[in-house]
């Protein structure tokens, strides 16, 4: 007998997210050929890994449950989302059996290992390195960033590009042992001075509740403190700009919100959680984040990760859902 749960209402899905620690969700449509092709594999995973109140496998028909599909910005079939403690931690688009099996079994193994971390989960399963709880009623919407449209001004090319800021993987700055010896510079540093200007467009209209910025400057090994990058201090935020601002242009435009961070704002993972004036960030299609200066006397600022917490806009055109083929899998 199948253990997969067919979702019949938004309330049923919401209750399940609260009652089961991990919820694997198959967003499908009856007219979608690739959805039918991968369905037997999904059922096999469900039969072998389902555990009451712990790991649940569900199916959501996007044609009959449009409210749920809209809430999670599902625009292509099939889409698989894995929720951990009510938040999306993995997303797989397309009929890719190997990738689906890999991410599901990985999370199931973590659950079997008794992991009880309440850390934030990103858009991939390695995002649980953050600490604290998400604001009630809101989730991680970083996966709505349109990475193709990202821009970053005054960044040093010796370090990671702007896309690295939105990865959910644990920064190497937090790694220990052999991982700490990695030469991968998975962070961003400013170049000619301490200022950074970033433009991030979104794939959907968002309600942005909170920003999280992670900064992990290294400890100085010598007396030259100017060589050690600083954490951001003053940050200005501009929503709904059509393009990135120039530094002089930003001086002439009042920011919608300006934040000054102090040492006590950074937690043990090097992350500062910045609540926004929510009423000012209700219908956001893009954000410009301007790091005005750093906290110290150095000449460079370092940023490792950026995370956006909020809610995806409800207005989606579900009439233009795509079919995603199974060319990635066999």
TrEMBL record:
Pfam families noted in UniProt: PITH (PF06201), Thioredoxin (PF00085)
Keyword Iron-sulfur (UniProt): no
Residue span, PITH domain: 130-328
CDD domains named in the record: TRX_family (cd02947)
Annotated GO MF terms: protein-disulfide reductase activity
Record InterPro entries: Galactose-bd-like_sf, PITH_dom, PITH_dom_sf, Thioredoxin, Thioredoxin-like_sf, Thioredoxin_CS, Thioredoxin_domain
Stretches assigned to the Thioredoxin domain: 1-109
Source domain of life: Eukaryota
Keywords in alphabetical order: Disulfide bond
Record GO cellular component, one term: cytoplasm
The keyword Disulfide bond is assigned to this record: yes
Family recorded in the similarity comment: Belongs to the thioredoxin family.
Name this protein carries in UniProt: Thioredoxin-like protein
